[in-house]
Amino acid sequence: MTGRASRRAWAAGAALVAAMLWAGLALAEEPPVITYKVVHSANAYPQGGVYPLALELTVAPGFHINSDKPDEPDLYPTSLILNGTAACALSPAVFPQGHAYKAPWLAKPVQVFDGKVLVRFDLTVDKKANAGEHLLSGRLNFQACDDSSCLMPENLEISMPLKVAPAGQTVEKLNPAIFKK
Hints:
By secondary structure, the chain is mostly beta strands. It has one helix at residues 3-27, and strands at residues 34-40, 45-46, 49-59, 64-66, 79-83, 88-90, 99-101, 110-113, 116-125, 132-142, 144-145, 154-165. It folds into two domains: 1-30; 31-165, Sandwich (Immunoglobulin-like), CATH 2.60.40. It is built from one helix and twelve strands; from the N terminus they run αββββββββββββ. The strands form three sheets. A four-stranded antiparallel sheet has the order 1-3-9-6, with no helix packed on it. A four-stranded mixed sheet has the order 2-12-10-5, with no helix packed on it. A four-stranded antiparallel sheet has the order 7-8-4-11, with no helix packed on it.
């Protein structure tokens, strides 16, 4: 191979590698701004009772989301729509108090959430609910922002598996620090 042909082959190979790397970077997904974990108060929920549940939201470092009451009518509030069933009803979500955040472009501070956020609600299990596994759902609506801009509002689908136990069955209490009376 001549020097010129060798350089062309090397340049073509380098261009191919660069294109493959660029395509890989373009296809790589950004990590989610919010992740969640269902926090149970028991390992199962006996028929005919009301039990506390929570959803622990984790907002990615460097981001915040507006609270459910952001103090400004033009801001997109965070909301959690819970979907129960006839056998397993869910009360409306109760968000904690947000904290004040002053963005450079706002005239006054607004209420936001960041880090870990515990959203509480109750599960009411019908006395005729079938014992066994149940899957409830919800949808978290939010808008994430950093110190310089906001992303488009998003919806995060929530999946909440739980187990219904026969009435009167003894169950194991979970997360007592979160669900202390």
